[in-house]
Design goal:
This protein is mainly β. Helices cover 10% and strands 30% of the residues. The longest helix is centred in the N-terminal third of the chain and has 8 residues, at 11-18. This is DUF1203 domain-containing protein.
Length: 157
């Protein structure tokens, strides 16, 4: 079984937004107050508590724009938070019943046939299995209902 690690949004990407930078579409992030119901921060991988300020913006979790570089809405605490470090554990934001778990190749393209809606309790085993394939560089965990990006899974060093 391949050992894995959950990888949160890079701190440089979060700092860009926290410092007033535009999102993937060149738009200023939208500020709002969290209602505490399903608002997952992609940097600390914790839910944003009710009455906490938050940011909504378009994010592209790929190094460059290309046909397979999905861009979509994500959330971030409005003020800097610590990046998720318990990389071997299922992140707290993964609290829905299931997610899309899908592999990408070294050119950042979807590897067709690698994706499946996966029960949350099975994510670690499924990602480990997918990452045994040499053609898979990394895995994304995405919402099974809206395809929103949640986090990345890499092989553990």
């Amino acid at each position: 079984m391949t050992k894995i690690r959950f990888t949160a949004m890079p701190t440089d990407d979060a700092m860009h937004i926290w410092n007033g930078g535009a999102d993937a579409y060149g738009i200023t992030p939208e500020r709002f107050v969290s209602d505490g119901d399903g608002n997952p921060c992609r940097h600390c991988l914790e839910h944003i508590a009710g009455d906490e300020p938050a940011l909504l913006f378009a994010y592209r979790a790929f190094p460059t724009p290309q046909a397979f570089a999905e861009t979509g809405p994500i959330l971030l605490h409005a003020t800097p938070c610590a990046r998720y470090v318990a990389e071997e554990c299922l992140p707290p934001i993964l609290s829905s019943p299931d997610y899309i778990v899908r592999g990408y190749d070294h050119a950042d393209r979807i590897v067709y046939g690698s994706g499946a809606v996966t029960p949350t309790a099975d994510i670690i085993d499924r990602a480990s299995h997918i990452l045994e394939r040499p053609d898979i560089a990394y895995v994304h965990v995405r919402s099974s209902r809206n395809n929103c990006y949640h986090c990345r899974i890499d092989r553990a060093a």
